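thread: overnight batch results

M.L. [08:02]
morning all. the overnight job finished for the chain we discussed friday. pasting input first so we're all looking at the same thing
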Amino acid sequence: MIMPNLPAFLAWGLITSLFIAVGWLPNGILGGFGNADDPGSWQGAATQLALADDGTTFQQYVGMVGPMVTYLLPILIANAGGRIVYKERGGVVASIVAVGMITGSTVPMFLGAMIVGPLSAWVLKKVDSIWAGKIRPGFEMLVDMFTAGILGAAMAVGAFFGFAPIITGVSDALGNVVSWMADNHLLPLMAVVVEPAKVLFLNNAIGNGVLVPLGAQEVVEQGKSLLFLVESNPGPGLGILMAYTFFGIGAARSSAPGAAVVQFIGGIHEVYFPFVLMKPTLIVAAILGGATGIATNVVFGSGLRGPAAPGSIIAVYAATPRDSFVGVTLSVVLAFVVTFLVAAVILRASRKKDLAAGGGDLAAAIAQTEANKGKSSTALDAMAARQGGAVPAGADAEPGAPAAPVRSIVFACDAGMGSSAMGASILRDKLKKAGRADITVVNKAVANLEDDVDLVITQRELTDRARRHAPSARHVSVDNFLSSPVYDDVVREARAEAEAGATERSTS
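M.L. [08:03]
and the structure it wrote out:
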């Protein structure tokens, strides 16, 4: 639900950083703090009644920051959740219900959107199944429209009065916990939970489910929040990878520098998780580094205007307000230094033992990391390939699939981006060089597949789901989107098809 909507989060963060009263380019109209009653003010923008410090009222510009965090982002999240469960129909109803929930609350409803989106779509799906196949021909559209409309309206009202207060209470409780930790100088202890959770791939649940909603609320109230940098600080991961670069051995040492670039600049934190799994005591270094970063932001009162997604240093600085550059920079630097020093001590202390044991099995650690994630990873696959421990790529074509002409190919993965986009780009380039640029190659999320494609290429664990969405297509499974002999097979088939067609035309 979150991944496809990250560009919207980034857009909101940039608009906030630029146009609010303390932003880089303060703008009362776009930032939503200008007085529309002032002489000469622009009258073309939406306004709302606001209370001045002296007790008088005035028309204040609505701006873009508030509506985006209050309405746009939760609706997008709910729509994505609804589409996952029941495609476009589920997305529409999920959006309707999300509006009821949003207007029934006073806090950003990210957490609520993650719940009501798929839930409302599931309810509609179950209701539709009651009379599926029982409606007289010609009345299907009428029944479908009224079912979705009536059910959506009813659930929106229910969310307004029933669900919104519950989520508001949960958000307030979580906010009170954070406030209590801040009042008692305990915020650095969040690293004790967050850093181990990252290695176990629970970081999205904690970051997007808890920290991002609370951080967004703090941005609305205070203009920035350090909560956005609790999970996305690239310092701890960089510290572990650089410690391996200088004090590691074997494949781990040779792989660490490249992984450090991907982690720090690219923001793909998962590349350092296998290094921690190889030596679990390194989680202590990550916790101490993460706690140092949080403590630094507390001391300097620094934070971000929006989520740093992905957790790249570039994304971090893009969301940093002008009064937080020193604090944010030090939080990353000190988190790196502390993690590096502690990790270096741990690696040096166990160096002889590691040498005797052969240096550890990075390939096994990568496999364990992908098992924790629940799916393959482009960054991890590439790292495994560089150090020679990648799982041999192969194809698992659907038994008995006819070798029909291929005109359209879809690479499908969970989110429809990242690894599948890389695979699609590789095959598209191969086909172009083979003179078959006429074959369409795109990438999609598995949930968005339709039965109008000739060939679907997926990671092995997703093939069964893909077959359900596109039963008429040929399906091929691969272990690694970045390097698979399947691509050469597809190119050979496409070239042979083109040659056969040319021969047939010349004969006729």
